[in-house]
Amino acid sequence: MNEVNHSTVYEFVFLGISSSWAMQLFLLVFSFVFYVVIVLGNVFIMLTVIFEPRLHSSMYLLLSNLSLIDVCLSSVSVPKMIYDLFHEHKAISFLGCLIQILFIHIFGGTEMVLLISMAFDRYVAICKPLHYLTIMNPKMCVFLLVGSWFIGLIHALTQLAFVVNLPFCGPNEIDSFYCDLPRFIRLACAETYKLQFMVTANSGFISMGTFFLLIISYIYILATVQKHSSNGLSKALSTLSAHITVVVLFFIPSIFVYVWPFPTMPVDKFLFILDFVITPVLNPSIYTFRNKEMKVAMRRLISQLGSSRNILLIPLRLTVCLLPKLTTI
Q: Among 62, 122, 278, 105, which Cα is nearest to 207's?
């Protein structure tokens, strides 16, 4: 370590996802189209829940928060990735890298807890329908929402506290398209074995624990439904299978990055496209556009905003029509 150049690292350089021009062009078009759909689709869902009094229930308030998190999580990394695809020198400042790590873990941690809250909401609705309004009252809904954001914030601040004082004096290239914690730590000019273990314990075990807790809860719900009504099992299975799909797609990248024993594998860059691009598109389609009450409320909101000749409504109408089709690709 005495021979290491102790100059300060002011920026990090992303190596990107691929050096192929054709692949970069594909990623540019793919990311831009999906990001526009993510923003328009999820913002439209939030506006629908806000302005439609009939949707002011726990389930839809949780869904609107999921849409908010999806927009925020994608916005942390996707616009920067699109911008870098136009430039050969893909760099981010040291502070910008820390801020990206912070917000990725805030929104990622919040979404993990929010998915648990949504699973609890579905459990009460399916297994205890007569007590749903009593259990999932406004106070419980606020508690779940505030708790999700609070835990996400604490998780992110804990992660940042591990790395904020690390010394960086040598390589500054990150083999990714965003600042991820494992690669960031490995660039430090210090012994980071214990730190990597703590990060794995914090993010990896939390991701795995939350994932298995959600899967177990869905299995329990299905088992409870089967005991009471064999006819309701197929309906519950149809609903929960879509939820499970989103949960699997959201958690696989995190589990792979923080638990996988071979951290040099480049496949994690492609896996995290699921979290930043694919899952935020699937969430509104699976959780809301398949819901009849939500679709009726959306049509009502569009009609209230103006006539079909209003050019400002064209992007929203295209998004509502295009989003379910994109999720089948």
A: 105
Question: For 91, phi and psi rounded to 5 degrees?
Answer: -125, 155
List, for residues 276-311, the tens digit of each pLDDT value: 888 888 777 776 666 778 878 878 877 776 554 454
Q: Which two tokens stand for residue 296?
A: 């009726």
Tell me how crowded residue 22 is: count the other CB atoms within 10 A of its CB.
8
Q: In 3D, which of 157, 148, 115, 96 has the Cα closest to residue 279?
A: 115
Its sign, for the CA torsion 295, 282, 92, 206, is positive
Contact 163, 195 (CB under 8 A): yes
What is the DSSP code (8-state) at residue 303? H
Q: Which two tokens stand for residue 216?
A: 């177990």
CB count in 10 Å sphere of residue 308: 9
Q: Which tens digit of pLDDT belongs to each residue from 148-203?
A: 999 999 989 988 887 888 888 878 888 888 888 888 888 888 777 778 777 777 77
**pTM (2 decimals)?**
0.83
3-state secondary structure 118-174: HHHHHHHHHHCHHHHHHHCCHHHHHHHHHHHHHHHHHHHHHHHHHHCCCCCCCCCEE
Q: Which amino acid is at 5?
A: N
Structure tokens at 18: 């691929």
DSSP 266: T
Rounded-to-integer distance, Cα 148 and Cα 164, Å = 24
Helix, strand, coil percentages (3-state) for the chain, rounded to 5, are 75, 5, 20
